[in-house]
Design a protein that fits this description.
The protein has 303 residues and is of the alpha/beta class. 31% of the residues lie in helices and 22% in strands. β2 and β3 form a beta hairpin.
Length: 303
């Protein structure tokens, strides 16, 4: 009876674990690495064998060190498979820039061992991970990010629109004026929006560190030039989830996000999202007086 109960509990735990993992946005890289874009963590495993030339007492430690070396190699390979944006992967960036290559190689060595399995053969299976945010993002995100929005409907001078033929000062971006009838408050909550959720289910979006939102003409609505670099390094430019309802309660955008439906994926890596011109105008109008884009309060809902 006890054995049957133990087996039942074990099966139930495995089922629940599988359901939980299925809710995350995961990208597998090779056979030994994965990227959890929901938790913003990169993981990899490595297997090490004991060195038979060492004394018996030292063989387990040697196997652990061997497993860590393999896991480190697999972790680096996994990170290289990540997309920085819709045009560039980490591997491309490392090949093109020796400084980035050296810094990534150094940052990856700061991994954390999260699981160690001891096999009957004497081999050791080690799982390591490291966050995408923080040190890794600091290396890979553009050094120049962010800009102070200027509303295209702002008084320049009082009562006039920003002239169409007048250059925009460096570090600033224009925001389109509100269309008649548009508001910056939520019809559901009656308060200001606290973030932006783009529903991109079914579009084939692939996660990236620095994706963009563009309108139908390709004009950027959200991207690296719109956000604070400090916030992007700290929490990532975009959060990823598979469920709109769950995303609405995510700390990144809670508790009253603006929800917009994406039209299609864009870019070579399919990381950017195109939204309708009407929705683009709504986003621009909404963010003209609110700074949630600057603080990366954006989530993409993907398959």
């Amino acid at each position: 009876m006890y054995l049957k109960s133990l087996v039942s509990v074990t099966i139930l735990l495995l089922i629940l674990t599988g359901i939980t993992m299925a809710q995350y946005v995961n990208q597998n890289v090779g056979e030994a690495g994965s990227i959890d874009w929901s938790s913003q963590v990169v993981r990899a495993t490595g297997i090490g064998a004991p060195n038979p030339n060492l004394p018996q007492a030292a063989q387990r430690a040697s196997a652990i060190e061997a497993a860590k070396r393999v896991a480190l190699r697999n972790l680096l390979e996994t990170i290289q498979g990540m997309s920085i944006n819709s045009e560039t992967t980490v591997r491309n960036a490392m090949m093109e820039n020796d400084v980035i290559n050296t810094r990534v190689q150094g940052v990856v060595r700061g991994f954390t061992v999260v699981d160690t399995k001891y096999m009957s053969t004497g081999d050791i299976d080690v799982t390591v991970e490291m966050p995408i945010t923080g040190a890794l993002s600091d290396v890979l995100l553009p050094q120049q990010m962010g800009g102070t929005p200027i509303s295209a409907g702002a008084a320049v001078p009082q009562g006039q629109l920003w002239p169409a033929n007048r250059p925009v000062p460096e570090g600033y971006v224009l925001i389109a004026p509100a269309s008649p009838g548009q508001t910056t408050t939520s019809s559901a909550g009656g308060g200001v929006y606290t973030g932006l959720v783009i529903d991109a289910k079914g579009l084939g979006i692939r996660p990236a560190m620095a994706p963009k939102i563009v309108d139908e003409s390709g004009q950027e609505i959200y991207g690296s030039k719109y956000v604070s670099r400090d916030w992007a390094v700290k929490i990532g430019m975009v959060g990823y989830d598979k469920d709109v309802t769950r995303a609405k309660s995510n700390d990144r955008v809670t508790n009253n996000p603006l929800i917009v439906k994406g039209l299609k994926a864009s870019g070579a890596n399919k990381a950017d999202i195109v939204v309708s011109n009407n929705d683009a105008a709504l986003i621009r109008n909404t963010t003209a007086n609110q700074n949630f884009l600057d603080k990366c309060k954006v989530m993409f809902i993907v398959d």
